[in-house]
Specification:
Shape: globular
Largest sheet: 5 strands, mixed, barrel
Number of helices: 3
Structural class: alpha+beta
Radius of gyration: 19 Å
CATH topology: OB fold (Dihydrolipoamide Acetyltransferase, E2P)
Distance between the termini: 71 Å
Strand content: 25-35%
Strand order of the largest sheet: 1-2-3-5-4
CATH superfamily: Nucleic acid-binding proteins
Order of helices and strands: HHEEEHEEEE
Number of strands: 7
Length: 134
């Protein structure tokens, strides 16, 4: 991958170091743009393409927090002839946002949203009731 494309997507020396430690492969790497059940939408220097998780990766994952989410970097195997790539590992996250899963409050399942964002904005609407005068 070209460095300018990777840098435009958020790749830096920190991710390169994590990739060397986390993935047994030298790449290629891609950024997760969307997750749709078992298919991922990935972006790298060759463009936008779909990928699925390898069977070994699925088997080795102990929880949903280990699965790729939007903003993650993944090591993917894809040739130009393949319509769908194969994800082998997730590069360690620099940051993540977590929330409780919908449903029972006793469940400890969380959803993660990774990314290189350093700022998080939370929008709230404030309502100040006014007193009605009689």
């Amino acid at each position: 991958m070209s460095n300018s494309t990777l840098e435009a997507l958020g790749w830096d020396d920190w991710f390169a170091g994590r990739a060397a430690a986390d993935c047994h492969s030298a790449g290629p790497f891609a950024r997760v743009a969307a997750v749709d059940r078992e298919l991922l939408l990935l972006i790298n220097d060759s463009g936008v393409f779909r990928a699925k998780l390898s069977g070994k990766f699925m088997y080795d994952s102990r929880s949903s927090s280990e699965l790729p989410c939007v903003g993650d970097w993944v090591c993917v195997e894809k040739t130009p002839a393949d319509p769908v790539g194969l994800v082998h590992c997730v590069v360690g996250r620099k940051t993540s946002l977590r929330r409780k899963a919908a449903g029972e409050s006793s469940r400890r399942v969380t959803r993660e949203h990774a990314g290189a964002s350093r700022r998080v904005g939370v929008a709230c609407a404030f309502y100040t009731p006014t007193r009605a005068t009689a």
